[in-house]
Specification:
heterodimer, A: about 300 residues, mainly alpha, 13 helices, globular, B: about 350 residues, alpha/beta, binds adenosine-5'-diphosphate, binds magnesium ion
C-alpha cells in the first residue's frame, strides 16, 4: 500500500538514463547537421552583420534625421517626433550610441522576420479551423515556456552568436503577430465578406482587398506587441552572444554596476517608447476615416 | 441565355428546400414526408428555412418577396447567386443551372450576371465612394481609367455627384445605400438581388430610395428580386409579390390580387395595415364591358388610384364611372359603391 503515501514515480535511474539517451541523440543530430544548418543561415547572418555595420557607420545625425522622418510620416505628431529625437540625442550623449544601433539592428530584423512568418500563419489560421486547432497550442507553449529552456537546444545546435539570438527572439516575439493577424481577419464584418463573395471575388482578392485592409489596425497592434517583446528579449539574447544594449546590463548584474545597468535599461525603454508611440499613432491614423463624423 | 422576348423566366426555382443543421438529407426526407417547421425543429433540432419553394421571375420585372422576420427571405434570395447551398431542389438563372456551376464558373456568373444590395450596406469602410462603386469592376480586372469612368457615371446616376471622394462613414444611411446601389449597377449585371435594401432607412429616405429605384428601373429593365417585410414597400415596387411564411410561399400575385383576395389570415393581417385607396387602381375594381354612352357617367382612367376615383365621383355627384385606358378606349364601368367597398378593409376573421 505504499502508493497511497508515496507517488508511484518512475525509478530515478530509468529517468536519468532516458534523459541521457535523448541528450545523446540530440547531440549526435547537432554534430551531424549543425554545420549545414549554420551554413543555411549564413546569408541571413551576413545580412545581419551588414545591416548592423550600416547603422553603426552611418553618421549619427543622418540616423536621427531618418528616424525623425519615419516617426513623423507614421504618426504625423510633432510631440512624438520631437520626443524621439530628444531620446536619441540623450542616448548618444551618454555614450550608448553604438550599442543602441546594434540593438536597433537586431530588433528591426527580428520584427521583419516575425511579420514575414506571422502574417501568413495568421491568415492560414483564420482561413482554416484545422490549422487553428494545430497552431494554437503551439503558440501557447511558445508564450509560456521560459525562454531559457528553448535557449538550450538552440545553443547546442548553433553555438552562440547572432543567429541563435535571433531565433530565440523571433520565437518569443512571433506569437502576438500570429494571434492578432488571425483575430483581425476573423473580426472582419461578415456582411462585407458576403458582399465580396456576391461580387465574385476570389479568395486572394477577398484577402487583399477586404480582409487584410480591414484587419490592418489589429495587425498593427500585433506588430507593436512583437516589437515590444523583441525588445524585452534583448538582455536574454545577450546571454548567447548578441551584442548591443543587453550586454552592458549583463555586465552590470555580475559587477553590481547599478548606474550602468540603469542607463542601458533606460535606453531600451526609450527605444521601446519611440516604436510604441509611432506605431500606435500610425494605427490610429489608419482607423481615422472609419470613424469620421457623419455629415450627410 | 434567356431574354425578355423568349418568355423564359430569368430565374426559375423548383421545389427548393433548405434545412440548417446536421444531416440535411435526413431532414429533407422528413420534410417530404410532411413535417413542417416547428415539427422538424422539435424532432431533429433542424431549422427548416425553406420548404418546397417554386418561383419564376420574369425577365425585366421586379419580384418582391415579403414575409415576417425569420420567414426565410434572406435564405431564399441567397440561393439565387448560391451564397447558400440548397438541401434539395433546383435553381436556374438565365437558363443555366446554378447548382451545376464549377467554382470558377460561379465566380464568373457572380461577376457578370448577378449583383446584390445589402440591408446594412456592406460597403468597404477603407475605400472612398468611387472605389466602392468600382469594386466589382476591379474584381474583373478592368483598367483603372475605365473603372473610374464607369464609377463616376453611376455615382451621378444615383444622385451622389460630388461625394465620390468621401468615405462611407461620412455619409448618411440613405447616401450609403445609394453607393450600394451604384456598386451593384456598375457591373451591368442583368439581375439585381436586394435583401431588405431599404429597411434600415428612415421612412422618408426609404420612399426616396424607392423612387430612385423605380426611376432607374423604367430605363434599365433589370430583373430584380426585392426582399422586404414592409407591405407598402412591396405593393409600391412589386410587379409580382410572393408572401413567405415559415419557409413556404403562401400567396403569389400582383398587388390587387394580394389586397383583394388574401389567401389566408397571415396575408390578411399584412393587408389590413395598408391604405387600400392608394395601392389599388380603378382597373382592378371595374366591371369590364362596354357602356351605354348616354348614361352620363364620369370618365375615370384605369391607372387612377381608387381613392382619387371616389373623390371625382362624389365631386360630380355621380354614382357610376366610365373607365378608359391611357389612349381613351373604353374598358368598362365602376360604381361608387364598388370603389368604396374596395377601400374598406374586410373584417379580420380567422378561418
Ligand atoms: N446560418 C444559419 N444557421 C441556422 N439557422 C439559420 C441560419 N440562417 C438562417 N437560419 C434560420 O432560418 C430561418 C430563416 O432565416 P432568414 O432567411 O434569415 O429569414 P428572414 O430573412 O426572412 O428574416 C430562420 O428561422 C433562421 O433562424
Ligand atoms: Mg433577412
Amino acid at each position: 500500500m505504499d502508493w497511497i503515501w508515496h507517488f508511484p514515480q518512475i525509478e530515478g535511474r530509468t529517468l536519468r538514463e532516458s534523459a541521457r539517451a535523448v541528450d545523446q541523440h540530440y547531440r549526435a543530430f547537432s554534430r551531424a547537421w549543425g554545420g549545414s544548418i549554420e551554413a543555411a543561415f549564413r546569408p541571413l547572418l551576413d545580412f545581419l552583420l551588414w545591416f548592423e555595420s550600416l547603422l553603426i557607420t552611418t553618421p549619427w545625425w543622418l540616423i536621427i534625421a531618418a528616424a525623425a522622418a519615419i516617426v513623423w510620416l507614421a504618426s504625423r505628431s510633432t510631440i512624438v517626433t520631437i520626443g524621439s529625437v530628444a531620446a536619441l540625442l540623450l542616448i548618444g550623449l551618454f555614450g550608448l550610441w553604438e550599442d543602441t544601433m546594434r540593438t536597433l539592428s537586431i530588433i528591426i530584423v527580428c520584427t521583419v522576420i516575425a511579420i514575414a512568418i506571422g502574417l501568413p500563419v495568421g491568415v492560414a489560421m483564420a482561413w482554416s479551423n484545422r490549422v487553428r486547432t494545430i497552431i494554437s497550442p503551439v503558440l501557447d507553449v511558445m508564450q509560456t515556456m521560459p525562454s531559457f529552456v528553448y535557449l538550450i537546444p538552440i545553443v547546442m545546435l548553433l553555438g552562440i552568436g547572432l543567429i541563435p539570438g535571433l531565433i530565440v527572439v523571433v520565437i518569443y516575439a512571433v506569437p502576438p503577430m500570429i494571434r492578432l493577424t488571425d483575430l483581425g481577419i476573423r473580426l472582419v464584418d461578415r456582411e462585407v465578406l458576403e458582399a465580396a463573395d456576391a461580387f465574385g471575388s476570389s479568395r486572394w482578392q477577398t484577402l487583399w482587398q477586404v480582409q487584410l485592409p480591414l484587419a490592418l489596425p489589429t495587425i498593427m497592434t500585433g506588430i507593436n506587441q512583437t516589437i515590444m517583446m523583441a525588445l524585452a528579449m534583448v538582455v536574454v539574447a545577450s546571454l548567447i552572444g548578441v551584442r548591443g544594449l543587453g550586454q552592458p546590463v549583463l555586465q552590470a548584474i555580475t559587477n553590481q554596476y547599478f548606474t550602468q545597468g540603469l542607463l542601458n535599461g533606460l535606453a531600451i525603454v526609450a527605444i521601446a517608447i519611440i516604436f510604441d508611440r509611432a506605431s500606435q499613432a500610425y494605427g490610429r491614423r489608419l482607423q481615422q476615416h472609419r470613424e469620421a463624423t457623419r455629415n450627410g | 441565355m434567356a431574354d425578355a422576348r423568349s418568355g423564359e423566366p430569368a430565374i426559375r426555382i423548383r421545389d427548393l428546400v433548405k434545412i440548417f443543421g446536421s444531416d440535411e438529407a435526413a431532414g429533407v426526407a422528413d420534410v417530404r414526408a410532411g413535417l413542417d417547421k416547428p415539427q422538424l425543429l422539435a424532432r431533429n433540432g433542424q431549422v427548416l428555412a425553406l420548404d418546397g419553394i417554386d418561383l419564376d421571375v420574369a425577365a425585366g420585372s421586379i419580384q418582391v418577396v415579403m414575409g415576417l422576420s425569420g420567414s426565410g427571405k434572406s435564405t431564399l434570395v441567397r440561393h439565387v447567386n448560391r451564397l447558400i447551398e440548397p438541401s434539395a431542389g433546383s435553381i436556374a438563372v438565365l437558363g443555366e443551372d446554378v447548382l451545376a456551376m464549377s467554382p470558377r464558373r460561379l465566380r464568373d456568373f457572380r461577376r457578370r450576371h448577378i449583383s446584390m444590395v445589402f440591408q446594412r450596406f456592406a460597403l468597404l469602410p477603407h475605400r472612398t465612394v468611387r472605389q466602392n462603386v468600382a469594386y466589382g469592376l476591379k474584381i474583373i480586372g478592368r483598367a483603372r481609367h475605365e473603372r473610374r469612368e464607369a464609377a463616376m457615371r453611376w455615382i451621378e446616376r444615383v444622385g451622389l455627384g460630388g461625394y465620390e471622394d468621401a468615405y462611407p462613414a461620412q455619409l448618411s444611411g440613405g447616401m450609403q445605400q445609394r453607393v450600394g446601389l451604384a456598386r451593384a449597377l456598375a457591373t451591368d449585371a442583368d439581375i439585381l438581388l436586394m435583401d431588405e435594401a431599404f429597411s434600415a432607412l428612415d421612412p422618408l429616405i426609404r420612399a426616396d430610395m424607392q423612387s430612385v429605384l423605380l426611376g432607374l428601373q423604367t430605363e434599365l429593365k433589370k430583373t430584380i428580386v426585392f426582399i422586404t417585410h414592409d407591405l407598402d414597400e412591396a405593393l409600391r415596387l412589386g410587379d409580382s409579390i410572393a408572401i413567405l411564411r415559415d419557409g413556404r410561399i403562401v400567396q403569389r400575385g400582383s398587388t390587387p390580387e394580394i389586397v383583394l383576395r388574401p389567401a389566408d389570415a397571415y396575408v390578411r393581417d399584412f393587408v389590413a395595415q395598408v391604405n387600400r385607396g392608394r395601392v389599388l387602381r380603378v382597373g382592378a375594381v371595374m366591371q369590364p364591358g362596354s357602356v351605354d354612352e348616354t348614361s352620363g357617367a364620369v370618365q375615370l382612367t384605369a391607372g387612377m388610384w381608387v381613392e382619387e376615383a371616389v373623390r371625382q365621383l362624389s365631386d360630380a355627384g355621380a354614382s357610376l364611372g366610365r373607365v378608359v385606358d391611357a389612349s381613351g378606349k373604353v374598358l368598362g364601368t365602376v360604381t361608387q359603391a364598388a370603389l368604396v367597398a374596395a377601400m374598406v378593409t374586410p373584417p379580420l376573421t380567422s378561418p
